[in-house]
């Protein structure tokens, strides 16, 4: 039996047979509705640009670099770079223009965000701890530089639980070309219970959710599948009833019912063909679909890839998923399909960024028109920025000394909060830089959580997403 | 003139019983105040470390007017915020001190020094509590005393079938039917069954899984790129073998910290060191960045922290890592203690290391050689990086313009590059290539066009010789009548890059033109000569008379389409830019660049680099003469350099205390030592300066495994209990500190700890035997309302704990019950149940591409290749351990994704199919299925329901249901 047959058979029976057995399976979070303060937001989308996106080529406009393009760069201190030694000043290869009421300067490669730029709160003075991808990525996803700590999405799931009875509360949409540095560690639940780990979903692939449906099989038919589940439910229920006092046994019976419900709701959530044409166009989906040609990196394909994830993310949020993490860019392979533009910023950043900006702008507009932007936070992030000077001739090396994050929606006021220096090399005010912990604290704050009070004891320490740091960025709150 | 110091002035105030500042006052401040109010922190802008600072917060002689006294006094004092309140006696001491004038030792600066409070259950000496009952298993005596005390009534013993299944899984991780001996529920002798299972090799395979979970074992590095570790598995086999051989526990641990030093010449002494290396490793931070940079030093610090934490969490259940940024908030571990442990492990890194096959004296020689090579490589890297840095700062603007010109005006590279000589090991080897114009002709000009090849990013000028000459003549052998056209043999020439070399000939009639290289172009370790095109301009129309001419050469690499003799005259060569103006600009830029290069040239540096090159060329072949030996990925001080990751050759790195754990805020120099948490634990090792680095690890190993270390013995017996009963006597198995949980049965824990300690063999098997032969272990797992009301979590063990099969047990059972498990295929390299794509850069571990029917993967899960970045999805959904951290106990979650996995996964499908085929041949498939999978016959209801399912959908569908039954997944 193929998948289509299976699904058809499933939708025919499941409502009567499986779904109605049990509804309320949404697990409450540890805060059980008792939030620390009234929330402004209910859900989060984290957009992660793996490889380190260049702030000075996107939204942190530095005219001085263009002025001094090609001249030796002297920031007045010895600079230690990740891979190279500092080259000359490198003006952005793209022109910047003002956008929106605020006149925010955006480069050509993020121009699609111009229409929603006034809703975005840019933080241009974020600082990292090291220029090593894996550590930088973990810092942004988990608040720690080393593996073994829960992802921000896991913390949110742990605190708030699921709003959905039949979808995981934390969903990850990885770049379909491969995983970023640290792989699945970026959405691991670590010492939090396993149900809070991110569930990887790959929209557009042959098997978007692992094991969601039966595999190709000589012996599994719609009939045997349904009958098998019935037999299983009967025997497992009897087994549980014969062993009172052990909740796990009945929970396991119920987990199969939830699984059946999930087969339907996940399949439905991923089916973007149900969206009207104008919505598909808004997100820039290609007529060829996910099979669009990308033998060489190009804008059309990148727009399709990122736009599809954004659209699926919106559908998941509508169905009660708490936290969606979207990845752009896979591991550090060649040819580049990530933001790590050591060799050629123009070659990699142009298609990746235009694709990202198109999908993101669509997402913001779409959430807004559905009234969901007011209680959905979008967090755009990356592991660090890129240097104002060149590496080799056309590339930029890592800049963990300053880079940009931005937030949007969920009670966040648009504007620019925190500036980098004239080069985009360090924060303008180094004593008041922003950290990943501040961003995480703000995120939790908007969800009604005091980041200092959401703790779990692990190996003697009451662990937090924000370690022992973090200040809520109050200036950007409505 | 008389100038009074404050202390002298204060001394004029009448004295009461003035407390002694050093003996009585300073310790209170240092223990309770300075963690926040020292110079570094100064919380609330309050400092209490110097006399001047303290005087801002008190009035000598007037305690009631002194803020310091007010803050610490009263039933709910404001201070200290983070430490325990001061005792009334301490407050009184401070009062009297202020009253008496607040005398301070001149110039004294106080420092944070928490009290070392060793009064805690896990740190106290282990006495051997005597069980009340003289006879029988002492475990039961302690357990039943507690049950009686709480008014709990233990449930009866489980039935034999349940017990056999429980014991088989607990001791070997396999269902009874997997073993090649029979279990007779009717007449079984429990004790002899225990012995058989304990002596089965499957025991080590099961219990090694517990150990590997704990020691964060995996076979890839994790972090960025997540490269495989092809030699990690010998450590896994070492663990299995050590457990099966029942190696004394203290020795087992000693080998894992310092086996090389304590048991020299013995393979297990090195294999054990796989423990220190088992955790994740930041390849990029070590190899690409390196310790020359701050980021690299951070990576190394975090790496060592990981090892230090592992040693103490795992062997002593102590969380020393909490003292990285400040003294441990709850346990008596100071920052100094913690950084002394860094000093112990300061010389080791994670790398492949020989454990057998290379005699010790040979290994020593080899390591000396290796150290020389590594030092030369390090110097080479530094010199070339320095040179690049200086150059890059001045030429990157030029480079970018050049790149722009090429991009704008360039043409795509065609594959017919030109002619290429054989590769030579000798730079001075003479090599020639020549063209035959067919007949003597008047040639005006010879043009040499350099080759272009992106190999090693060389590009233009590839293979162009450093010294060469061009000759013309009519003798093909160039023996007579040779005309020298151009002589560039006296000195090295700058590489012409994309410029043609144009030479006037003077219209003499010549037939042969020859280019001879007298100093070849260098590659990494050898030398070549290559040319893109050779032209001879002449005749009325100034044509290229060499077009298509025959080419001969001393030697030639014929590798079509790129390289070949014919390519020298085929008219195809790479022009980086076609536009003449661009070409002019390009040449200009190249001249500028060359000038900068010349200006920055450092002949001494170049000479040194040449020298290094020579040394390496000399030493590398010598290294290759040593046998490679068998390798294990372990703690090592001698290994081949990988980029900037260079072995210490046994010279410990300098370790400093890091204020706030920040690499940029180093404090005092640290010497090896450990937290003195038990009597006789050496706070400092005080080793002689000439001692090898392994001496410090040997001290650490001996101290940790000492008879007097109560943590060591308590920690392991608690783990054995946890692995047998499903929950520990101390539920926080990696943390016996004040933030952990106290033991439910302290006397029992100590009795067991003392038993293991006092056993001359320190035998783990003896202890496991003691536990599983207890009545407590053999109880049924049935519910009891009254007991549950008193002890719902079963902390007192009035029944057995029902447990779910672990991820590995579940997988192994699928294979075993289906009849495909290759039980005897033990040890050796791991099986891979994934396909690796893109191995050259960042390997992609693709599990969905693996065929679940592939018999090479039908081995026990302990032999699985464990990937960190991309964990095995099937096992992960069943709560298998995350190897990025020490996992003392598995989670047991129940989720919808798990149900989907067990119902739909391809492995379950494949095994159902396989099992179904076997069942199809049985007379009574339902009964056969139950016997094999559950070691019992089906109940009447099971039989009815499943027989109907079998008849309707076949035996494979029956097997699929069976593999999803609670009865299969849970152990009663």
Q: In CATH terms, what is the fold-level topology of chain A?
A: Alkaline Phosphatase, subunit A
The mean pLDDT of chain A is 90
Which blocks of ≥5 consecutive residues of chain B have pLDDT under 50? 1-15
Name of the level-1 CATH class of chain A:
Alpha Beta
Radius of gyration of chain B: 38 Å
Number of strands of chain A: 14
The CATH architecture of chain A would be 3-Layer(aba) Sandwich
Shape of chain B: globular
Biggest interface, residues from each chain: A-B, 101 and 107 residues
Strand content of chain A: 5-15%
How much helicity do the residues of chain A have?
A: 25-40%
Shape of chain A: globular
Oligomer: heterodimer
- Low-confidence parts of chain A: 1-26
The ordered H/E elements of chain A are: HEHEEEHHEEHHHHEHEEEEEHEE
Strand order of the largest sheet of chain A: 6-5-7-1-8-11-4-12
Characterize the largest beta sheet of chain B: strand count, sense, and whether it forms a barrel. 8 strands, antiparallel
Polypeptide structure, described:
The complex is a heterodimer of chains A (478) and B (972). Chain A is an alpha/beta fold. In chain A, 30% of the residues lie in helices and 12% in strands. Chain A has one domain: Alkaline Phosphatase, subunit A (3-Layer(aba) Sandwich). Chain A has helices at 3-17, 63-67, 133-142, 152-160, 222-241, 247-270, 277-282, 299-318, 345-369, 436-446; strands at residues 43-49, 96-99, 104-107, 120-126, 170-173, 199-200, 323-328, 376-382, 385-386, 398-399, 403-408, 415-416, 456-458, 461-463. In chain A, the strands form four sheets. Chain A has an eight-stranded mixed β-sheet with strand order 6-5-7-1-8-11-4-12, with helices on both faces. Chain A has a two-stranded antiparallel ribbon with strand order 2-3. In chain A, helix 5 (222-241) packs antiparallel against helix 6 (247-270) and helix 8 runs parallel beside helix 9. The longest helix of chain A has 25 residues, at 345-369. Chain B is of the alpha+beta class and 972 residues long. Among the domains of chain B are: 6-99, no CATH class; 138-211 and 708-790, no CATH class; 248-358 and 630-704, no CATH class; 419-574, Jelly Rolls; 906-971, no CATH class. Chain B is 40% helix and 11% strand. Chains A and B meet through helix 3, helix 5 and helix 6 of A and helix 14, helix 15, helix 17, helix 27 and helix 28 of B.
């Amino acid at each position: 039996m193929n998948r289509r047959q299976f699904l058809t058979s499933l939708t025919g029976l499941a409502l009567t047979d499986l779904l109605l057995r049990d509804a309320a399976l949404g697990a409450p979070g540890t805060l059980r509705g008792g939030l620390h303060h009234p929330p402004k937001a209910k859900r989060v989308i984290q957009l992660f640009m793996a490889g380190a996106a260049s702030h000075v080529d996107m939204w942190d406009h530095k005219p001085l670099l263009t002025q001094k393009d090609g001249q030796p760069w002297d920031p007045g201190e010895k600079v230690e770079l990740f891979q190279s030694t500092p080259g000359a000043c490198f003006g952005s290869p793209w022109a910047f223009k003002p956008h929106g009421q605020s006149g925010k300067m955006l480069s050509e490669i993020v121009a699609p965000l111009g229409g929603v730029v006034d809703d975005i709160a840019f933080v241009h003075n974020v600082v990292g701890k090291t220029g090593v991808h894996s550590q930088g990525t973990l810092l942004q996803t988990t608040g720690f530089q080393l593996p073994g700590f829960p992802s921000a999405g896991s913390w949110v799931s742990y605190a708030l639980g699921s709003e959905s009875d039949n979808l995981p509360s934390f969903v990850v949409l990885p770049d379909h070309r491969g995983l970023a540095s640290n792989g699945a560690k970026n959405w691991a639940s670590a010492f939090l219970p396993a149900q809070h780990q991110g569930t990887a979903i790959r929209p557009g692939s042959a098997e978007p959710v692992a094991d969601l449906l039966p595999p190709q099989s000589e012996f599994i038919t719609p009939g045997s599948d349904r009958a098998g589940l019935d037999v299983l439910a009967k025997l497992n229920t009897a087994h549980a009833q014969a062993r009172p006092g052990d909740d796990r046994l009945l929970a396991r019976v119920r987990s199969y019912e939830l699984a059946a419900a999930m087969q339907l709701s996940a399949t439905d959530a991923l089916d973007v063909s149900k969206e009207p044409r104008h919505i598909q166009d808004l997100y820039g989906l290609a007529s060829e679909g996910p099979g669009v040609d990308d033998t060489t990196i190009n804008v059309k394909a990148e727009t399709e890839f990122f736009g599809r994830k954004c659209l699926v993310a919106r559908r998941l949020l509508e169905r009660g998923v708490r936290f969606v993490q979207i990845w752009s860019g896979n591991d550090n392979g060649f040819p580049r399909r990530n933001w790590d533009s050591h060799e050629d910023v123009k070659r990699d950043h142009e298609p990746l960024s235009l694709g990202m900006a198109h999908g993101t702008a669509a997402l913001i507009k779409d959430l807004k028109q559905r009234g969901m932007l007011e209680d959905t936070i979008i967090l755009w992030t990356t592991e660090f920025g890129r240097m104002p000077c060149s590496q080799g001739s056309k590339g930029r090396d890592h800049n963990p000394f300053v880079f940009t994050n931005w937030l949007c929606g969920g009670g966040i006021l648009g504007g620019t909060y925190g500036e980098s220096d004239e080069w985009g090399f360090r924060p303008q005010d180094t004593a008041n830089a922003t950290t990943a912990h501040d961003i995480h604290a703000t995120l939790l704050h908007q969800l009604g959580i005091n980041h200092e009070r959401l703790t779990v004891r692990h190996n003697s320490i009451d662990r937090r997403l924000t370690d022992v740091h973090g200040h809520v960025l109050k200036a950007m709150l409505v | 003139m008389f100038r009074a110091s404050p202390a002298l002035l204060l001394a004029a105030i009448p004295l009461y019983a003035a407390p002694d500042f050093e003996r009585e006052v300073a310790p209170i401040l240092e223990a309770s105040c300075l963690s926040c109010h020292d110079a570094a922190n100064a919380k609330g802008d309050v400092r209490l470390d110097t006399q001047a600072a303290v005087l801002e917060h008190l009035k000598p002689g007037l305690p009631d007017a002194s803020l310091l006294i007010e803050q610490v006094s009263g039933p709910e004092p404001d201070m200290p915020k983070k430490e325990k309140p001061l005792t009334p006696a301490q407050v009184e001491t401070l009062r009297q001190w202020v009253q008496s004038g607040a005398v301070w030792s001149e110039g004294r600066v106080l420092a944070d020094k928490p009290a070392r409070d060793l009064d805690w259950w896990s740190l106290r000496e282990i006495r051997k509590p005597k069980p009340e009952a003289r006879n029988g298993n002492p475990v039961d005596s302690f357990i039943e005393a507690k049950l009686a005390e709480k008014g709990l009534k233990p449930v009866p013993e489980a039935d034999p079938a349940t017990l056999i299944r429980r014991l088989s899984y607990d001791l070997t991780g396999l269902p009874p039917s997997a073993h090649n001996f029979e279990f007779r529920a009717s007449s079984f002798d429990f004790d002899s069954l225990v012995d058989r299972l304990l002596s089965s090799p499957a025991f080590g395979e099961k219990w090694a899984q517990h150990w590997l979970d704990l020691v964060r074992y995996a076979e890839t590095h994790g972090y960025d790129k997540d490269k495989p570790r092809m030699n990690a598995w010998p450590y896994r086999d070492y663990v299995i073998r050590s457990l099966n051989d029942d190696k004394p526990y203290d020795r087992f641990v000693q080998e894992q910290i310092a086996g090389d030093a304590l048991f020299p010449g013995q393979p297990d002494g090195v294999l054990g060191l796989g423990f220190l290396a088992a955790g994740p490793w930041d390849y990029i931070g070590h190899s690409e960045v390196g310790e020359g940079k701050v980021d690299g030093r951070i990576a190394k610090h975090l790496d060592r922290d990981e090892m230090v934490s592992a040693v103490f969490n795992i062997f002593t259940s102590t969380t020393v890592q909490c003292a990285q940024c400040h003294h441990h908030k709850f346990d008596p571990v100071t920052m100094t203690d913690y950084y002394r442990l860094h000093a112990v492990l300061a010389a080791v890194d994670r790398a492949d290391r020989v454990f057998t096959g290379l005699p010790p004296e040979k290994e020593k020689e080899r390591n000396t050689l290796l150290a020389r090579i590594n030092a030369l490589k390090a110097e080479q890297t530094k010199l070339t990086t320095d040179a690049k840095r200086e150059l890059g700062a001045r030429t990157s603007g030029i480079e970018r313009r050049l790149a722009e010109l090429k991009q704008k005006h360039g043409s795509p590279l065609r594959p017919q590059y030109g002619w290429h000589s054989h590769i030579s090991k000798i730079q001075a080897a003479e090599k020639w290539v020549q063209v035959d114009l067919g007949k003597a002709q008047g040639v005006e000009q010879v043009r040499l066009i350099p080759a272009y090849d992106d190999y090693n990013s060389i590009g233009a000028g590839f293979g162009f010789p450093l010294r060469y000459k061009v000759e013309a003549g009519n003798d093909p052998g160039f023996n007579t009548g040779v005309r020298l056209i151009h002589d560039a043999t006296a000195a090295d020439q700058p590489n012409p890059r994309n410029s043609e070399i144009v030479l006037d000939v003077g219209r003499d009639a010549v037939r042969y033109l020859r280019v001879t290289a007298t100093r070849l172009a260098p590659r990494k370790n050898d030398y070549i000569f290559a040319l893109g095109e050779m032209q001879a301009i002449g005749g009325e129309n100034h044509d290229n008379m060499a077009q298509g001419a025959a080419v001969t050469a001393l030697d030639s690499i014929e590798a079509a389409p790129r390289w070949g003799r014919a390519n020298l005259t085929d008219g195809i060569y790479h022009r980086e830019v076609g536009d003449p103006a661009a070409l002019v600009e390009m040449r200009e830029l190249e001249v500028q660049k060359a000038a900068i290069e010349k200006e920055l040239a450092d002949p001494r540096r170049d000479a040194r680099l040449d020298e290094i090159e020579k040394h390496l060329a000399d030493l590398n072949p010598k290294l290759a003469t040593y046998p490679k030996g068998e390798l294990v990925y372990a703690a090592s001080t001698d290994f081949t350099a990988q980029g900037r990751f260079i072995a210490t050759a046994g010279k410990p790195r300098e370790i400093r205390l890091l204020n706030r754990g920040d690499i940029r805020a180093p404090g005092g120099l640290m010497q090896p030592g450990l937290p003195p948490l038990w009597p006789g634990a050496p706070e400092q090792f005080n080793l002689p300066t000439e001692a090898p680095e392994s001496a410090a690890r040997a001290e650490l190993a001996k101290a940790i495994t000492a008879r007097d270390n109560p943590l060591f013995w308590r920690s392991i017996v608690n783990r054995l209990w946890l692995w047998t009963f499903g929950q520990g006597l101390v539920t926080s198995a990696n943390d016996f500190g004040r933030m952990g949980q106290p033991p439910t049965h302290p006397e029992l824990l100590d009795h067991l700890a003392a038993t293991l300690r006092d056993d001359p063999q320190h035998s783990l098997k003896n202890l496991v035997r003691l536990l599983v032969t207890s009545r407590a272990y053999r109880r049924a797992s049935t519910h009891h309302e009254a007991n549950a009301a008193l002890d719902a979590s079963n902390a007192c063990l009035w029944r057995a704990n029902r447990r779910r099969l672990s991820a590995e047990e579940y997988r192994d059972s699928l294979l075993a019950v289906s009849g495909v498990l290759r039980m005897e295929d033990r040890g050796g390299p791991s099986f891979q149940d994934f396909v690796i794509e893109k191995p050259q850069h960042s390997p992609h571990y693709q599990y969905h591409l693996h065929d679940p029917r592939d018999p090479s993967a039908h081995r026990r899960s302990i032999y699985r290749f464990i990937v960190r970045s991309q964990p095995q999805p099937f096992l992960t959904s069943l709560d298998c351990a995350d190897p990025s951290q020490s996992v003392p106990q598995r989670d047991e979650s129940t989720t919808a994704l798990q149900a989907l996995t067990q119902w739909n996964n391809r492995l379950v499908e494949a095994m159902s199919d396989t099992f179904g085929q076997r069942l199809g041949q049985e007379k009574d498939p339902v009964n056969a299925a139950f016997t094999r999978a559950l070691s019992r016959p089906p109940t009447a209801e099971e039989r009815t329901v499943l027989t109907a399912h079998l008849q309707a959908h076949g035996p494979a569908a029956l097997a699929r249901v069976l593999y999803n039954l609670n009865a299969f997944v849970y152990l009663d």
